[in-house]
Amino acid sequence: MDKVLIYWDNSNIFHEAQRLADELEEEPDARYRVRIHFENLLRLAHADRPVQKAVAAGSLPPEMRQLWNRMESHGVEVHLFDRGSAEQGEREVPDRLLQLRMLEDALDFNGDPGIVVLLTGDGAGYHDGAGFHSTLERMHKRGWRIEILSWAHATNQRMRRWAEANGIFVALDDFYSSITFLQPSRPGFELAKGRKAGDLNLSIRRTS
Q: Taking the model in full, what pTM does it have?
């Protein structure tokens, strides 16, 4: 079975989940209480196929530490950055790091390409020959199969059309209730009990 390499832009996935929570959840303050169910989203990404490598990048808010710890315990290679630090150069932001790792892996597995699973909707930089979309095109030309998992409302439409024509696009919206959950409200806010993540249904998940 072909190897799966997963690249996860957590900031893109999480912040766009917050926007969707405002629309879909009936409980108050859903934007601030929604969280990603890491295990279910990771399983959605690999779809029960063997994982050669998984890399995630994101920022450093303390409330995310539990998520990063869980990722690492599942063998995910985690890279964290402080977006607010003046000492961080542009090369060090999470999306650039992920793109670099993708290109490095494409070279390392040049004679034995597998399946790239990218979790982001960010298609910026394409006209300059940069960004995730350009990186995916380069890998596709070298025999890699492509799968993009992203929220429909937040996916660059050019990148989505390309993925649908050349690989697989999976709208995370179809799995919203199983890859997110709501934390209970904090003391002093309107009472809300929260919501657990539902069961993940992989039967509707298309694969390469």
A: 0.91
